[in-house]
Amino acid sequence: MNISSIKIIKSCISLGIMVTRNQRLDAETLTLVADEFGYSVEFVGTDLEKAIQGEKDFEKDLKPRSPVVTIMGHVDHGKTSLLDYIRKTNIIAGECGGITQHVGAYNVKFKKGNSITFLDTPGHEAFTSMRARGTKITDIVVIVIATDDDVMPQTKEAISHAQLAGVPIIFALNKIDKINSNPDKIRRQLSDMNFLLEEWGGKYQSQEISAKLGKGIDKLLEKIFLEAEILNLKANPNKPAVGTVIEAFLDKGRGYCWTILIQGGTLKLGDYVVAGTFHGKVKVILDEIGNNLKKVLPSKPVKILVLNGAPNSGERFKVFKNEKEAKQLASRMSKLKKEQNIRSKKTITLEEIGRRIAIGDFKELKLIIKGDMYGSVEAITDSLEKLSTDTRIINIIYKNIGLITESDVLLAKASNAIIVGFNVKCTLKAKIIANKNNLEIRLYNIIYDIINDFKKALYGMNIKVKKVTVIGNAEIINFFKRKQIGTIAGCLIINGKIIRNSKIRLIRDGVVIYTGELNSLKRFQDDVKEVNKGYECGIIIKDYNDFKIGDIIECYI
């Protein structure tokens, strides 16, 4: 713009943003500053996304394609058993502990000549990221729920991911062959979550099935085809292939192997493929059984062998006419990725909301709420929802009790939400993912503080940020009762250090049970000022005696 950095810094300060000369600015600030000096800003997207989105298909080139259906639900509710029956194979036998630990992609052909591509996503909580990936590339989601169980937290998460992806949901009520099966109980629990099934006068399709005996599966498939017919799914097969990488790994005997889903065009042997920063020539195309193929049409999942590397799961890929073009684009993507890592995306925070309101750029705040008890979570939810106005909406996309886990952080990342924790802690993995993605996790132990902070944020007022620094953690390995002193907790310092007279929190099963102060800290018979990691010590907490083995004492500033 040929304007001195001093003028730009002054402009930023006038907008309430304190910057230095060498600081990298986020997209919103760049736009505002440029506008101050009469310039407009144009942002360059990734070349690959531009190339994929830039190609518009004409109606005459579009042909019907198979639906892509994702099977989701809680662990051990029968997702893979359902696919087993449909495919007449035994997938479970090859899985560790009988639990699906990867996203499987299968194309199943039926006697009438039509086919469905199934994505089998893991149902275990640790694999939420894979479930989230499944919904992004699917047309229809089938949520499998066991009728001898309840609508579990992982099932609720799966439903949340499907809703965020904006795809139709069909509920498969499994295990109706069991003696204690109760489908109406599941229908009632779903209706309590505002998911009213068709047989109860709602809009969501459902089908009672037994994946073990094959009961009701034909009717479930009919409902999938009916939903696909309504969606009128089409793709253009007469162009270079585009699609999504489902999984990528290094096969010792073959090299880099990508499991991909073709979403448009036709993939052929010898094509040059680019996905993220990686590229290569397609040497081999295999179906899920291992048969060699020469070409693949849309909605088909295949494995391909390429030379260059393994892209991230969920990465978009595209076929290019020659290797030179593919290499150039991969090189540009690599440089752009480095720049993006430095200039990381500004995620939503309470302070950011206040700033956006001030410049008139705020519509909806998405929240994930985790608490120690359902009553607390409901009270927080009701209080926050009352703060919504016509122009400033609070949308609680997920709420539950227990620790803040990596699945919560991944859901927050997918939906650009803030996580609010009440009297709960955050797992180490969840903290690492949140820090890596600049996601905000706000922990509270007073409900009024939550309401006040969000009220201030919604009205663009400054929020006081109280930062808690954890100095160390001690695990209670034994405890001893003394009449005159009280209960002494025998502890092992598991990280950091414990300091005498410091503030502490007692954590049991991830929930904060008590907040107070250390009264005494001993090593053997001696009073000490601090005890470091790896050493044992005796701790007395002021006005508290109810210890259990396995409790964690967290020392903080």
- The helix tally amounts to 14
Going across the major beta sheet, what is the strand order?
13-12-17-9-10-16-14
Measured by DSSP, the beta-strand proportion falls in 25-35%
- The tally of domains stands at 5
- The CATH architecture of the largest domain can be named as 3-Layer(aba) Sandwich
Give the N-terminus to C-terminus distance in angstroms.
Answer: 46 Å
Q: Which residues form runs of ≥5 with pLDDT under 50?
A: 90-102, 123-131
**Global geometry:** globular
Q: Mean pLDDT score, rounded?
A: 80
Structural class: alpha+beta
- Give the number of DSSP strands: 29
Give the arrangement of secondary structure elements.
Layout lengths: L4 H10 L12 H10 L10 H8 L8 E2 L3 E6 L5 H9 L16 E6 L5 E6 L7 H9 L3 E7 L6 H13 L3 E6 L8 H10 L12 E4 L8 H15 L2 E2 L6 E10 L3 E10 L2 E2 L3 E4 L2 E4 L2 E3 L8 E2 L4 E6 L9 E5 L2 H20 L7 H9 L5 E8 L2 H12 L7 E9 L4 H10 L2 E5 L5 H9 L4 E4 L2 H12 L11 E13 L3 E14 L3 E6 L2 E13 L2 E2 L2 E3 L3 E6 L10 E5 L1
Task: Name a few traits of the molecule.
557 residues, Rossmann fold, Elongation Factor Tu (Ef-tu), domain 3, 5 domains, seven-stranded antiparallel β-sheet, six-stranded mixed β-sheet, 29 strands
What does this structure look like?
- By secondary structure, the protein is α+β, with helices and mostly antiparallel strands.
- It folds into five domains: 5-36, no CATH class; 66-232, Rossmann fold, CATH 3.40.50.300; 242-342, Elongation Factor Tu (Ef-tu), domain 3 (Beta Barrel); 350-458, Rossmann fold (3-Layer(aba) Sandwich); 470-556, Translation factors (Elongation Factor Tu (Ef-tu), domain 3), CATH 2.40.30.10.
- Helices cover 28% and strands 31% of the residues.
- It has 14 helices and 29 strands.
- The strands form six sheets. The chain has a seven-stranded antiparallel beta sheet. The protein has a six-stranded mixed beta sheet with strand order 3-4-2-5-6-7, sandwiched between helices.
- Strand 25 (511-523) and strand 26 form a beta hairpin.
- The longest helix is centred in the middle third of the chain and has 20 residues, at 323-342.
- Residues 90-102 and 123-131 have low confidence and may be disordered.
